[in-house]
Structures are given as structure tokens and as C-alpha cells.
Design brief:
4 copies of one chain form a homotetramer. The first copy, chain A, is an alpha/beta fold. Chain A contains 15 helices and 13 strands.
Chain lengths: 360, 360, 360, 360
């Protein structure tokens, strides 16, 4: 039995475990004041090409989103996000629990017209500059907007929850709209490594650091046991951010656990290497899926693929391969997600091929 | 340089690291649904002698406190705690951030009279049944209590922030008061292992599970990299507690990280062994301190000791030993905390002895 | 200059002012414990035909919504409402400020098909049983629903923000869905008087009290200076609701101000009389609009009408009549709202007619 | 039966009711945009001698406190207040419900020494500059202060909950401490009129406007039906404060109700006249109490007096006079509060005298 259920089914990259073991009995101060955190921050600053960046290591993505968003918003503000954005749907109301509304942009209409199937696929789950601008204009033109939640920042994930990607010009267009309205732009990089190494990506970490006001580099899904590095690239962290982190229960006593991991991830390009591996595996996965005649619900340029299967075929597949249920478009069919990761092996892909071809 | 600064200066017990390495590449479901979490829960249920316990693994103590407390309180209720309780002082307002007041009991008056120095020391940082009852009676007698925050549960830490301990009869008296007022009793066990193995302890895990409505078994400070096991011993977890955990950003995607660690800690009594070791080291520490003529500000039966030092002596000490600043009672003196842990070695104690005696 | 801007442009019905004056110097206890509050509650219980109702007087609608909703939801729950519902759009995030998400049902698709213009109009702004059920089913079928905000209650306004009305069978169908999922049903009755007296209404106050779990009877927009009566018809108010009211800053020290007003409103049927008057005026208003060839954007059976005007015509109108800007569908046209109220006079209607006909 | 229970047992000053009646049928825009609000603001600016003041009318005191405090604090900050401050004790956790801790200063030690009974009385319920400074210094010296709630502003009530008063130099000393730490100073003026007109007061409204960063002028307890005027004297209201007010359910649709009342209160000095009257009545009350041999628990220079009565005497008193239970110091005695107000009459005082002397 192999698993393509998600990119967090295995532990950590062996180099990470090794470093944890090596450093294990060295006494270090708590709460992120250890030398590994310091070293990891330096390496991230270098990788992002922003020497003034302020960096905080948090444990998980929902936590990072809640802490960052609530620290940037004023009480009367909400965060603008795609309808399908993680913060709007799959974080159990973590943003609202901090008192703020998620201002959901309706699902993108880009490419809704006939014959634009490709554009539609590429748009899935994304915020679009033109639509964002329309939303913001509409807000300020509304005679009653003082009775409404003010847009206070813009959230997006890259890659998105559907594995889709922003191009640099798209992101710059969004950033320009944000600047026009004075809104910080925040990138949720839970799977950032897989985005950066996609064959369709035209952005580097330093592009992201230049364009965004804050972002996090996802560790949990890209080779770490846990951990996300929140980066304020212009040294623009909110005042007393550490206290805010603590208040949200997001400050690890043994901060070294995060420092050591990110230090390993940003040593000798490991983070990008892991991203590259997952992308290579994803390209092979797509080939297998095409070869086996599978129908793509969404063929993404990153590590997540969504396919439509007849239920009978799915049943057979699941004897050998764990996949992630996505939705049920009709009786008789199911959409499932298959994800590769830093840890996917060729052997696992082979099992999948055989399971699909029925030779298993 | 050795460190007695805290009980979280080193990584994890080697058996934990070993298990993480062994299980590392086995694919497992996320969010705590893996077999290690299941196994760890079973072992904890056995250790607590409560087969119906519901158990959740969270990452840290502040997080555990905020999640448990906010899930148990109604909107109009607050949590009763000692003035010096962790939730009242050192969690950056994490409880208030969930909308609830900490109802701080004034520092205990037990043993305030002359000649009761010992009782006073033993009372430090604790909630006392009689004083708790007085507070609750006073609340309900107050003609304006409907304009006040209702006491909704009682929080205490065991051992306390000062290393002091509850005796079984003390805790049963508190629990009886709580039952009388319908208040759940919650034990913060960040250092529970060190409390259970104290020579003055007359309680086992199963006593605690019997007396309290909810408690957490601290991993971070007792040998784990991170992690606290929240136990609802009577199967009395609030409905949809997992969703509440998620909402607070406290649900680890790779829940295995916690499952593997607690499985190791509750295999062959490791958790209690680690507690015992720290206590033995603490007893030797106290002997050294006495032998070196140190003045105890608070000599505790657990792993934390508080001593009063002349600043000149402290300065010398700090050349070889890291200690934790506690407070400055006057010009010329400082109170510092020295903590042992599961990882304290005899060699480290020897360094401390030499540093104090000036033979270093 | 006359105003049809809203139903809260004038003060209070003279009988209310008179009672305030009469009772002014009688000393009474504060916080709603005065005899007028008691008497008003008795009269409302009678009018609702529910002798066990628990009733609380709050000052305004946003406040009532936030207090009721946050007191009924558990931390992991949100309130289901129409996309266009007041709590979702025009209360500045008051619900989210209490930590809860508004789960917005997409705008109704009922009557979207060609030729169903009438049904579409009647559906505007409403929750529909079938769509609600679809939403709830979808939620529980979602494999990830434990990572999502649970639906915890259903909110709707009657009349809606568009002046549309529920029929008794529609409401009973919604209530049945709610019961099936264990969700309290909450009616926002900011304009309830105008709904009850609409010619299309087939519900009485006692129907509403029977069908809903909680509702409020709007005073501010139906003849009072301020005030909304929150009714828990089955004596089902959340425990210590008064303390919750106080906590939200919604407990008036001089509760008599609300008691006296509602006592007046529920004496000799005044509340319904005021409703009837506004409806009569609205019927005449609609006649004038039709007679003057106005295009209805939405012709409602209650006191709010929405018309589409050429901007040039609007400009002329606004020299004599204040209307409320609604939206701008295109260059050259504007949708405005015209509202009648308990205080609208025939003379004011006449001014409107002349302004529209250009004879002014 | 007469009542000295509180200063909110009667309705409104007749001039206020008269204005409400006169303006009743004039249509006006809602939400505080009416000409009465505008006029009232102008008059208050003049009375405070601060032409740039931004002023908002809210309905009640708890609401005003929660809105002002939560709008001024950052997420990691709390509000410093006296242990006995209204926000800390009698507002049902309204501040904590917005996510912020009340940092309670222990009850003042000023005048604790023998022979300083008078100073002790004058200090009751107050914040003292020296003690405040000590608290703030201690906070920043604490090595762990980043894990604690930062002091973000200072709250005090004037007069206090015990009727005590600040002198101008006391307040200036507090303000200086605040400036030193960058903390806004906020005055809760629920009974401000009674403070300003106390014989011991050496401050005018313009002194208060000069010294404080924000304050509210209490209407509810000083002659209005409801309403408090929040004043930001230097035009320093937080951005989009109106939206914050709306979010807290504190924005009255018929804002005119507040505008008309404050316009009346600030016409021809009515507000201060009402204050003066209550103070005169309080002075006569104190004379009667002394004459009748009552023991003062706290004899205040404003409108509230606290006396210690034998229970038997209290029982007789309560046949004719309603008083407010304060506390029960021992079996056999009770402390009660007697309050005068803008509406207290000589006849009522006479009833009290007779009730105390037993001639009734």
C-alpha cells in the first residue's frame, strides 16, 4: 500500500533528523533564542535576498495565518481572500475566532467563457488583480461602507489549494492594487517549495520577498516534521510580534526544534531540492495518469493533481494506493486528489501505474 | 558552561529520537489519526487507569490552556486561578484573547502568621480549598454578581510555577468545592512528571485522573521535543473538540510527531523514569546549595529551586552556570531559579558545586 | 423636503413620548427590573400567545443580533445566513467580532430560470428550505468538515433587507430542516411590524413564536426611539443571558426607557396599528410609482420599494424628496430605496407624486 | 417611599423630554448625522475648550468603555485600572470579551499607615501616579515581560466608584507617567457632572480635556435617559471609529435621541446645573447622616455616600427609603450606599431624615 493522499504522510527529510540528533544534548535557550534559529534566519535572509527581513518560526499553517492576519488587521478590518482560500474554508474559523471577517472574493469568472477551459483551470483558486480591484472599488463606492467590514489586507496561497500557480506579472498586478489601497499582501506558502520549483514558475524566493509584505515558507509539507517560517521581508513585523505569537499559543518553548529544521532546510539548497524532487515525481505522475487514460479534473503545474474516476475504478485503485477524496460530482464518479512530496519514490509511482492499469 | 536555567534547554530523550527515526518513512494519515497516536492514547489510558479517557495531543502548554479553558467556559464565565498562575501572568493574555477573564485569587494568606514560614513556603503559588470556597461564596452573595464574570472552572498547575506540590487531600478538598459549585477542575501538568515523582508526592496519575475533570500531561518539559497530552478522564471532552483544536491553530498536520513521542514516553514507564531522574538530581542540587551555604528563597520538593544570592556571587556563578533570573528583592541581591530536568547530569551538578565554592 | 430615505427618520409615536413624560419622575429600579418592563413583557407574552416566553429589551438591532447569536453558538459554530443578510453585510463584522463566522448561503437560485421573474423577486434576500438543506447535507458529507466551521444556528430577517416576506409554509419548512439538524432558528424582526401587516402576510406573532426558537420584535423602525424586544418563546433563554447582555454593553441602566416604550407599543395593539399604517402608505406609494411610470427594481409587499431611475429624473426628485441610494447598475441609472413608516403622511406621498410628475 | 439607591432611578430632566417632543416629527438622517448631534458636538467642544475634539455619542457606559478601550489597544496590550475599577469588576468581562486583559493595580496602599484615615478615604478606588509608575517600571524590568500582557493605556473613573475625586495635580502626575510610557489616559466620566461640581473639585471640563487623551461625559446618570459623549479632545479618534462603534452594536439608528439630549444638556449650562444640584443635595444628605449619628464607611465629596448601619436600623429605614446594599462587614451590620442625583428633592431628604430619626 502506497499513499498519494497528501504531502504530509511521512516524517522529515533524513538530514533534518540527523541534525536534531546531533544537536540534541546541547543546552540552548528557549523560545527561539537559540543559535540554530539565528543561523536559520540568516540563511533564509540570504535565500530571500532581503538582509533586513524579520523572521519568526511557527509550528503550523493555520496558526501562522491566524497570528499574521490578526496582528496586521485593525479591529474594523477583515482579510480579503479567494472564496476557496484555506483561511475561508478549512481552518475551522481560526480567523473569525480572532474577531475578523474573511472577505471572500467570489470564485473567479476569468475564463468562464466557452473555449477558455485552459484559462479557467489556471485561474482555479486564485485571486485576480482585476477582480480584486473591482471588489475594492465597489466597497468604497458603497454608500454604506462605514457599516461594513473594511478590507484590511489580502491573503492568497501560492501554490493555491488547487495546486495552481501565480505568474510574476499576475502577482505584481495584485501587489499594485494592494498598494493603491494601502493593503498588505500576504502569501501563504504552505507548499511554497513546490510552487518555486514548478516548471511553470517564473518566480524565485527573492521575487516573492520583493513583491509581498509578508509570507511564510512552509516546512511541514516540504520535508520538516513541523514548522513554518514567517518572513517580514522589509523588517516590517508588527511591534511586539513575539508577544502576539505567545498569546496565540504559537511560541515553542524548545524553539530549537524549528531552528534546527529550517537551518537544515536552508543549508545547501535542501528546501529547493525537495521541491524539485516532488515536482519531478508529479510530472511522472501526470504522465502515468495520462497514459492510463485518466480524466483530469484539474491538472496542476505543482504537486497536486485532481482526477475524475469511475467509482468502480477508484475501488480497485484503493486496494493499493491511498488517495484523497475531493468531491462527488455525480453518482458513479469521484474526484480524488493525488499528491507527490519530497518523499515520493519511483517505486510508489510504479505501484500506482500498476494499480491503474490493472496489472497489479 | 552548564545550564540550570530551565527544564527545556535540551532536546528530547534519545529513545524518542530513535523512534522518530525508525518510523520516519512510514506513510501515516495526518491530524492525529495515525497508529502511534492511537497507541500512545491506549498507553496513557492504562497509565491513568481510565479506559474511557479521551486524549488529544497538543503542541504546547499555553496552547493547551487556551484551548481547554475556552472550550469549557460559556461566554459569561471566567477561569479561577491563583494570582501567580501561569495563565494569569505568563501567557501574554492568551485566555483573555479567547474572550474570558482570569479570576485571580489573591495570593494565599495560608501561613502568613509569624512562625509559619514552612507552611507559607508550601502554600506558595497554590489554590487553597478554603480560600477558593470563600471566593465563590462571596461571588454569589454579591448583590451585583449578575454584572460580574461568573466563575466557570478552576485552573491550577501541579507542580506550581514555584515548584510547590498539592497533597492528595488538598486536591480532593478543592475538587469537592468545585463539585459544590458545578465547576470543572483543570490541572496544568506542564511539569507533571516532576510532581508525580517528588518524594513528597502522595498522588499517582490515576489519582489525578480520578480527582480532576481535565488535565494535561506535559511532554515539552519532561523529555519530549514538544507536546502535551490533554486528558478528559471520564470521556468528557467537549463536543467537536478536534475542531476547536484546529480553530486555535493547535492541530498538527503531522500528528505522528506527537504520537510517536508520547508512545515512547509511555512505553516501559519512561515518563516516570525521566521524572524520577530530575527529582534525584534536584535532591542533589539542594544538598549542594545547602552545603555551599546558599539561602533558599523557596526550597521546593520538585525540580525547581529558588535561591537568594549576593550579586557578586551571582556574577561569579554565571561564568560557569546559566541560571534563570527571578526577581531583584533589593540592591545587592538577586533571586535566581535553578531547575533540573530529565537530562541533568552529575557532571553538571559538579560544575555547579565548583562554581559556587569558588574552586572552579 | 420630505424623506422616504428610511423608516427611522422620525422620533417616536406620540403615545410613547407621552408615557415617557408621565412616568418620568417615578423612581424605579434599573437594568430592566422596573414595573414597565414587567408589564411590557406580560403584554408581549400575550400578543405572542406564549406565556412562558423570556423577554429581554435591548437597544438596537446589531446589538441584539450579536448578543443572541454569540450566546447560542458554541465556539466551533457559525451562523447560517443569506449572503445578503444584515449580519453578513451591514453590521461591520459584529458577529465575527464575537469570534464566529457567518456561513453565507449563496444568493438564492430559486426562480433563476427564464419566465420566473416573479418568483425571483419574491425570493430576493431569503433563505430557502431546500437550499438550506442542500448546504447542511453538503457540510456533513464533506470529508473535511471537522476542519470547517459547524453550522450552529440559522438567521433570517423577516421582512428581509429587500422587503420580501416569508409565507408560513416556507418558514415551517425551514424550521423543519433546522430541527433535523438541531439548529435553533432565529428571526431578526427589525421591521417585523411591517411584515406582520403586509397584505401578503399569512403569519401572526403567535405563528412566529411557535415556529422560531428566538426572535426580536423591532421597535426602532416601528415607532420607538430605540429598542428591540428579544423573545425566547419557550422560556429557552441561554443561562445567565442578562450577564451576556451586560457583557456586550447592551444592558441599559435606565431600562425603563425600553420598558415604557414597549409597554406603549403593546397597549391597544399600537404596534400592529403602526405596521398597518406603514403598509397602507406603501401601497399608495406603489400606486404612485406605477402611475408615474417608474420601473420597479423590486416591488415588495412591505414598506420598502426599490426603483430604477434615470439619473436626470433622480436629480429632479431629490430636490423635494430624500431617497436612499441603493446601487448603480450602469451609467445613467440609479436604484433607490423608498421606505414608508409608521410616521409617513399622505401629504408626504403627495409631495412625492408631484416631484415625480414634475408638477412641483 | 423614596429612593436613594442610585442616580439612575428617575427618567430625564424635563428640558430633555421637552426637546425630544419638539423635534419628534422632523425627519433627520440616522446614525448620528442629524443636526442635533452636530449642534451638541459644537457645544461640547466649546464647553471643553477644544475646537478640534472629535465626539461620538454612545448609549451606555459599559459600551463606551469596551468600544474606546478595544479601539485604542493593540492585540498584545491590556488596560491598566484600579482593582476596584468598573471595567475590572462590574462590567461582566466586557473588556476581556474584546480580547484584552484588565491589568488591575492592587488596591492603593496610600494612607495605609495608622493615623492616615483621611488620606486612606480620599485614596479609595483611585489610581495613584507613584503606584502606577512602580507597576510600569516593574513590568519593563521583568525579564519575562515579553510573555506578559503589555500595558497599553490607563483607565480611571472620575469620580470613582466610591465617589472619591482626583485633584488636578494628581491627574497631571498620572498623565505625566502615561506620557513617559506612551500610554493614552482615559477617563470614565459616568458621573462626571457630579465630580466637576463637587466642592472639592479644582478641575473644569477644559482641564480634563487638556489632561486626558480620551474621556466620556456621562449622560445616563446626570439627567439623560441614556447616552454618553465620548470625547477625543485632540481630534485623535482612532481611524474609522464609527465602524468600530457599529461593530460593537453601539451605533444608534436614531442617533437624534442622543443628539437632542446632549444638545439640551449643554445648552445654558444645564449639565453643570444638574451636577450642582446633586452636590447640594449630597451635602444636605451628609449633614442629615451626621446629625442622625450615622457612621460613615466612606464620606465622599460627590453624590455617593457609604454608611455603616446596624441591621435593625437598616430594616426600619428601608420601610421608607430605598438604599443600595454595598457589603456586609459583619453579622449585625451592613454598609449601604445612598446617592443623590440631578432629581433628588428636599422632600426626599426630609423623608430620609425622618426615617433615620424614627419620627416617621
Amino acid at each position: 500500500m502506497v499513499s498519494f493522499e497528501s504531502d504530509y504522510t511521512k516524517g522529515a527529510h533524513p538530514k533534518i533528523l540527523q541534525r536534531l540528533a546531533e544537536s540534541n544534548l546541547v543546552p540552548m535557550p528557549g523560545y527561539g533564542l537559540d543559535p540554530y534559529c539565528e543561523s536559520a534566519k540568516e540563511k533564509i535572509r540570504a535565500a530571500c535576498n532581503c538582509p533586513e527581513a524579520e523572521i519568526y518560526f511557527l509550528v503550523g499553517g493555520t496558526q501562522a495565518n491566524a497570528v499574521v492576519i490578526s496582528s496586521l488587521l485593525r479591529g474594523y478590518e477583515g482579510v480579503v481572500a479567494a472564496q476557496t482560500g484555506h483561511v475561508n474554508v478549512h481552518e475551522a474559523g481560526a480567523i473569525e475566532a480572532t474577531g475578523h471577517k474573511v472577505l471572500a472574493l467570489p470564485e473567479s469568472q476569468m475564463g468562464q467563457d466557452a473555449g477558455e477551459q485552459v484559462l479557467l483551470q489556471k485561474s482555479k483558486g486564485k485571486v485576480h488583480a482585476r477582480e480584486l480591484e473591482g471588489f475594492l472599488q465597489g466597497f468604497y463606492q458603497d454608500a454604506n461602507h462605514e457599516h461594513m467590514v473594511f478590507p484590511g489586507m489580502v491573503y492568497f496561497s501560492h501554490p493555491t489549494e488547487y495546486g495552481t500557480l501565480y505568474q510574476k506579472d499576475e502577482l505584481e498586478a495584485i501587489a499594485e492594487v494592494c498598494r493603491g489601497y494601502g493593503l498588505p499582501l500576504y502569501l501563504d506558502g504552505a507548499r511554497l517549495g513546490y510552487g518555486l520549483m514548478s516548471r511553470e514558475s517564473d518566480m524565485s524566493l527573492s521575487d516573492i520577498a520583493r513583491i509581498c509584505d509578508v509570507f511564510y515558507i512552509g516546512g511541514t509539507k516540504v520535508g520538516a516534521l513541523c514548522g513554518e517560517a514567517v518572513v517580514f521581508p522589509k523588517g516590517n513585523a508588527p511591534k511586539h510580534f513575539l508577544t502576539t505569537v505567545k498569546q496565540h499559543g504559537a511560541l515553542l518553548a524548545k524553539g530549537r526544534l524549528l531552528g534546527v529544521q529550517f537551518d537544515a532546510l536552508f543549508t545547501e539548497n535542501l528546501y529547493l531540492e525537495l521541491g524539485r524532487h516532488a515536482i519531478e515525481m508529479a510530472e511522472q505522475l501526470k504522465e502515468i495518469l495520462r497514459e492510463q487514460g485518466c480524466t483530469f479534473y484539474l491538472e496542476s503545474p505543482t504537486n497536486q493533481q485532481f482526477i475524475l474516476l469511475e467509482d468502480s475504478k477508484l475501488e480497485k485503485l484503493e486496494k493499493h494506493v491511498a488517495a484523497s477524496f475531493w468531491e462527488k460530482p455525480d453518482e458513479g464518479h469521484t474526484i480524488v486528489r493525488l499528491a507527490t512530496s519530497w518523499a515520493t519514490s519511483k517505486e510508489e509511482l510504479e505501484v500506482l501505474r500498476e494499480a491503474l492499469s490493472g496489472t497489479h
